[in-house]
Amino acid sequence: MERLATDESSRQHQEIMNQADKQPGGAVDHARIEAAVREILAAVGEDPDREGLRETPARVARMYAELFGGLRQDAREHLQKCFTEKYDEIVLVKDISFNSMCEHHLLPFIGRAHVAYLPRGKVVGLSKIARVVEVVARRPQVQERMTESIADLMMSELDAKGVAVVIEASHSCMVIRGIRKPGSECVTSAMRGTFRDNLSTRSEVMTLIYGGRK
User: Fold this and answer.
1) 186 an active-site residue?
2) Which domain holds residue 116?
């Protein structure tokens, strides 16, 4: 029953990811963002027309267009060009830096992703894995969904024997507000295929990720 629940959860995450990738968002409405930012500034008691804030709404609009650029991109396009190789051991790209935006408070979480896969006759350029992380990160979301989205995308597009994704990140919503605990990190993982089913393979990839740390 536990395995069935896990498979169903994976399927649901795949559907969410596919919807995001198949229907990229339209152009960013800068004017609408600017109007909203002006209202927020006024609501907190500021004067949006004073010199220091006069251009802030436009700056925020440009920033959101950049931070949420992944809504208008299809992450799968970076995995379309593969190369035939007989290599059948772990391929790992670790310490991929990223920044994303927590959808609960619209505050950033910043960290690094470790992405591994076991090829099934074809490999992809290493930089493409980092590009996938970049596209998926630039969307409003939670770290748990980001982790599973990357794993499901890699698994389906590469037809891999297995995929492992581990993400470590510091969340501004825990550092600058609420409980205010600087230095805390959230670690999430998503294991697919062989990495889920085979303990020794999962242990091997975790050793490759963390084994060299002091």
Assistant:
1) no
2) 77-210
